[in-house]
Write a structure and sequence with these properties.
The protein has 360 residues and is mainly beta. The chain contains 4 helices and 17 strands. It has helices at 2-17, 79-84, 138-141, 144-147, and strands at 26-41, 46-62, 65-76, 98-110, 113-120, 159-167, 172-180, 204-214, 217-226, 231-240, 243-244, 249-259, 275-286, 295-306, 311-324, 327-337, 349-359.
Length: 360
């Protein structure tokens, strides 16, 4: 830990005192997300506050090379665990009270090809779609065939990996990556996500993805395999703008994921049931009341089909308004049907959230 923090400090100091570095070559960023949440139903009625702060730096080192360093801290309630009992995790910043390193990676570009190595978040470039990322439920950000079945390098515990990207042309892009197969938990001697080690018995997660972009639409398809868990799967994400009058636009999206049933071969974590099929879809309207497109509304559902024959579905509705360039508010409501995070029957839940976001 001391060696890592010292290396980060030396890097920042070097960039700060090197007069050849211009402002364009060094960029700092910070963001805070806060949620006031209340739940009715589920395990019990109740609510509270949770938040997530992150800060980062990226620097252009030499031609085609970029360094990314960043960390975060989460605090507040854990609503899925305490109040709701759902499987898909109703809030995408729920992580408990922790401070952690999020990324420390180096990317080198060679024309249309690039490689990125180091501590990173798989979900930043894989298994995601922008339109779905507007929602608060965790399953819109990352398919639960990853997050609930395997130990994966995603928020809040990212991991070591190597990514490879290639731009075939303006329409086609392919990428592949390999990540550490088991990310230690906060309780497993990884308090600040600085325990970076790769064990021979942990295996590795291999993933590949193709993108097709055309006419305000993005279509992604991918596959993955975990060598130790013997888990494989396939997924597809798509979004397509279907209407635009110059000030407003309408964009539906869909997410589909499949993973083999690994209940008997899963060796890394004792998690049952597993998610073998995921389906989500929704539609976003940008420019609801504002001709400057400063606001957005969305309605979507996400369903996780589980190996114990249960199916959990979350229906989410949000409205988002950008008050300034750096301040956004988002009231949000979710209805969770058949919460399946526990092995006991749980009532349906109605969850209201008022989110605000501050960025620098």
């Amino acid at each position: 830990m001391k060696k890592t923090l010292s290396l980060l400090l030396i890097t920042v100091l070097f960039l700060g005192i090197n007069k050849t570095y211009s402002q364009e070559r060094l960029n700092f960023n910070a963001e805070y997300i806060g949620d006031f949440l209340y739940n009715v139903g589920g395990l019990k009625n109740g609510g509270g506050y949770l938040g997530y702060a992150k800060i980062g730096m990226d620097a252009n080192l030499w031609k085609g090379a970029s360094l990314y360093v960043g960390g975060g801290t989460t605090h507040g309630i854990t609503p899925s665990e305490i109040f709701i009992g759902d499987y898909q995790v109703v809030n995408n910043i729920e992580a408990g009270n922790h401070a952690f390193m999020e990324y420390f990676s180096l990317q080198q570009s060679f024309g249309k090809f690039s490689i990125k190595v180091g501590l990173q978040d798989m979900n930043e470039n894989f298994a995601s779609i922008d339109a779905a990322g507007e929602y608060i439920n965790s399953s819109f950000g990352i398919h639960p065939i990853f997050s609930t079945n395997l130990s994966v390098a995603i928020f809040p515990l990212t991991g070591l990996g190597a990514e490879f990207h290639y731009e075939i042309n303006d329409n086609w892009h392919v990428q592949a990556a390999v990540y550490d197969g088991e990310i230690p938990s906060f309780e497993d001697d990884n308090l600040y996500n600085l325990n970076w080690k790769i064990g021979k018995d942990e295996g590795a997660l291999f993933i590949g993805e193709g993108h097709y972009v055309r006419d305000n639409g993005t279509y992604k398809f991918g596959a993955f395999y975990h060598t130790a868990a013997k888990n494989y799967g396939f997924y597809a994400n798509a979004e397509q703008e279907v209407w635009n009058n110059g000030t407003r636009n309408l964009k539906p999206f869909v997410q589909i994921g499949y993973a083999n049933n690994i209940s008997e071969t899963h060796k890394l974590i004792n998690l049952a049931p597993q998610n073998y099929f995921h389906l989500a879809a929704g539609i976003n309207l940008e420019g609801v009341f504002s001709e400057e497109a400063n606001d957005m509304a969305g309605l979507a559902f996400t369903s996780a089909f589980l190996s114990d024959k249960k199916t959990e579905t979350a229906i989410e509705l949000f409205y988002q308004y950008q008050i300034t360039d750096n301040f956004v508010v988002k009231p949000d409501v979710q209805y969770i049907i058949n919460p399946a995070g526990l092995d006991i029957p749980v009532d349906n839940a109605l969850v209201g959230t008022l989110r605000f976001m501050i960025g620098i």
